[in-house]
Amino acid sequence: MMDPKRKQRTLTFKIFGKDSVSGETVHEEEDAQEVEDVQEEENVQEEDDVQEVDDVQEVDDKQEEDDVWKVEDTHEDDVQEEDDVQEEDDVQEEDDVQEEDDVQEVKDAQEVEDVQEEDDVQEEDDVQEEDDVQEEDDVQDVEDAQEDAISHAFCQTNLSDLLQKYFNIVTGKGTVEDFSHPILHRCLSHVMKNAKTLCKKHVPSHYKLAMHTFGLLTSASTLAELDEMLLSCTVLFSSPCSSENVEKHFKNLQTMLTAFGVSTVNDSSIVAEDFEVLSKL
User: Fold this and answer.
1) Helix (H, G, I), strand (E, B) or coil at 25
2) Residue 251: which pLDDT band, with cuts at 50, 70 and 90?
3) Which residues does 252 contact at the CB level (< 8 Å), separation at least 6?
4) CA distance 235 to 245
5) Distance (Å, whole) CA 29 – CA 18
6) pLDDT (0 to 100) of residue 10
7) What is the spatial distance between Cα 148 and Cα 136, in angstroms, rounded to a whole number?
8) Looking at the DSSP assignment, which residues form a beta bridge with residue 25?
9) Which of 66-70, 82-86, 111-115, 218-222 has the highest mean pLDDT?
10) Mean of pLDDT values over 28-38
């Protein structure tokens, strides 16, 4: 026998399992509907999930694009910054080059000015030297003309011929005609005046020694003495440096200068005179 409770449950199931109108079983339809609903919900959920994934992907893509744009913008900024730095470096380099060119131009201009100034100074010195030489030549021409005039006035011959006659006499070859002419003596003060000019011009650092040497030359009484003095003077004043030979001739001049003894004249009270001014007066 069937259990009464089980029988009741079966009847209840059967009662609820039949359609109220047709009396057909609707349990399978409800299950199918429920499956469809579940499936539809799953589909909706799946679509939502897909949509959500698409949205997330879209957000990610957009974020990635933004990041790419940001990176590109950053790169562009870096490139622009590098370009700006390069441009600044180029400008600075151009400024440095321009500054160097300006400095070099100033140096070149200064060098040209210095060279021009040196040339001008040299030209002035050359002109002054030429003027001095010309003045000396003019003075010498005047003196030669005066001496030649004196020679003609007192000896009835020119100066060159008279000097040749004097040379013949001092060398022992003088003739009667040579001795027939008077012996002209030049003033020693004028000789030393000319010596002073020459010594100041050619040996200013040894002026006193040169003047003493000229004085020694005027004291020679023979050609042999004069020749010895001239030889020692030439070696001493013409040698560019000291040597044994120079020392020898220097001592020779010292010996000849001291051979005359000490002068008794007190030269401390002597006042120098300007012969050129006196001659003009």
Assistant:
1) strand
2) very high
3) 228, 232
4) 8
5) 11
6) 46
7) 18
8) 18
9) 111-115
10) 73
Any idea what DSSP says for residue 260?
A: T
CA distance 167 to 178: 9
**3: alpha, beta or left? (left if phi > 0; alpha if psi -120 to 50):** beta
Distance (Å, whole) CA 11 – CA 114: 138
Provide CB contacts within 8 A for 264, sequence distance 6+: none
Beta strands in the chain (DSSP E): none
Residue 171 sits at φ, ψ, to 5 deg, of -95, 5
Token pair, residue 167, equals 């040379």
The token duo for 238 is 């013409």
Model confidence pLDDT, tens digit, residues 134-193: 887 787 788 778 888 888 888 888 989 998 998 898 888 889 998 888 888 778 888 888
Amino acid making up residue 150: I
- Cα 269 to Cα 190, 196, 252: the distances in Å are 21, 20, 30
Under a CB-based contact definition with an 8 Å cutoff, are residues 164 and 177 in contact? Answer: no
Which residues are bridge partners to 18 per DSSP? 25
Degrees to nearest 5, angle at CA 47 with 45 and 50: 110
Round to whole Å and give the CA distance between 249 and 235: 7
